[in-house]
Structures are given as structure tokens and as C-alpha cells.
Amino acid sequence: MRSINIGVLALQGAFIEHERMLTDLGAVCTEIRQPSDLTGLDGIILPGGESTVQGQLLHKSRLFMPLRKLISDGLPTLGTCAGLILMAQEINNSTTDSTAQNKTAPVAHLGTLPVTVRRNAYGRQLSSFVTEQPVAGVRNYPMIFIRAPYIERADENVEILAKVDGNIVAVKYRNQIGLSFHPELSENTKIHEWFLTIA
Ligand code: GLN
To answer: In this predicted structure, what is the pLDDT of residue 63?
Structure first.
């Protein structure tokens, strides 16, 4: 039986950490850098990093249209942190985000996930933190947040998987899972295991 082949977007950010975890779990990883890397995939991971840069590179690499089509057509996709921002239909730039050119106008990237995310939602003081919370059937999952977004609004058909301090930090919508935090940086492989069962 052939191994599950997960494409990990490898334009920028924390893609190596996802690959390490997936390989440890017995999956094969394909680094997505150009449209020809999109063939034969069972699932896609959009890693954390800097969503503005990733969004620009998606266009430069000509990945934008074919990647968006694969996700819309139902290929299982996991977006973490910046990856979640890439998927969101609407983006609010936090007022503490000095790099944002326009602090209010939301500019969507792939826009496949019907949610509004707030970028850098935890501000400067609390930009990075860890908390153990239940998510998707895992009792105490160590969630690692790094300059993370949270989800301000989700369409009613979006399943909410976890909240932290009342804010949505994990969702599932059809084939798409969006997380504010970084499962690839924790020791706990449960979320990747779960994703592989979907892929
Ligand atoms: N703050 C980043 C952004 O807005 C996301 C941070 C991350 O992926 N850890 O793109």
C-alpha cells in the first residue's frame, strides 16, 4: 500500500517542522513550490510564517489558482497560523500590527474558509504563549501561539473545534481545518494523526 502523500507549502515559514512530524507518522511529504508539485497529493498543509509574504509568493510561483482550486474541490487541507490567514475569506489587521499597510481593509488570500480572522490578535505583550486546552477530541492539547490570529466570525456551517478565552482558535469546514496555533511545534502528534486519517 502506498503511503499517504501530504503536500506542504514550502514557500516560507515553518514547513520543515510539519514535514518532520508527518514523516515520523509514516507519511510522505511533497514540498510545494511550483504548480507541478500539486499532483498526486492526498492532503495539503499550509504552515505558519508570515501570511503577507506567503500570499505574495503564491502569486509569484503561480500556485495561487491551482492551489485554491484543489482546496475548493475538497482536498483535505490543514492551515496553521499564517496558513489559517491564507485560507480565511476575510482578514482584519490588528491595530498593533505596524507592518500592515491598511489596518482595516481586509484583503483575502485564498479565501476558501468562510471565517474572518484577526491577525496578530494577541498584541505585542502576549504575542507568544502556550496553553493546554481540549481540541478536536484531544483532552489537553498544548497549543503554541506565536503572533497568532484568532477567528472573529465564522459562518454557521463552520464547526468550532476550540476556543481560548472565548475566542475561536480552531475550526473545521468541510475538508478544511484552520488552527491559530502551531501543532507542528509541540511534542503532541495527535492533530497530525487526526489529519492523516482525514487525508
Ligand atoms: N503574524 C503572522 C501573520 O500575520 C502569523 C504568525 C504565525 O504564523 N506564527 O501572518
So the answer is: 98
Give the pLDDT score at 107.
74
In angstroms, the CA 175 to CA 179 distance is 14
Residues 14 and 48: beta-carbon distance below 8 Å: yes
Closest by CA position to 21, among listed 188, 180, 141? 188
Atom of ligand 1 nearest to the CA of 13: 8
- Dig out the grid coordinates for 16 from the structure: 520543515
Question: Does the pTM exceed 0.85?
Answer: yes
All residues at 6 or more sequence positions from 18 whose CB lies less than 8 Å from its CB, including other chains = 8, 29, 45, 47, 80, 184, 192
Scan for cell 475561536, then name that residue. Answer: 168
Provide the 8-state DSSP code for 170: E
Is 182 in the active site? Answer: yes
Q: Which residues in the chain come in under a pLDDT of 50?
A: 97-98, 100, 102-105
**Radius of gyration for the alpha carbons in the chain, expressed in angstroms and rounded:** 15
Extract the C-alpha cell encoding 187.
Answer: 511534542
How many CB atoms are closer than 10 A to CB 177? 28
Minimum CA distance residue for ligand 1 atom 8: 48
18, 29, 81, 192: the active-site residue: 81
Q: Following DSSP, what letter does each residue of 36-94 receive, concatenated? A: GGGTT-SEEEE-SS-HHHHHHHHHHTT-HHHHHHHHHTT--EEEETHHHHHHEEEEEE-
Residue whose C-alpha cell is 459562518: 155
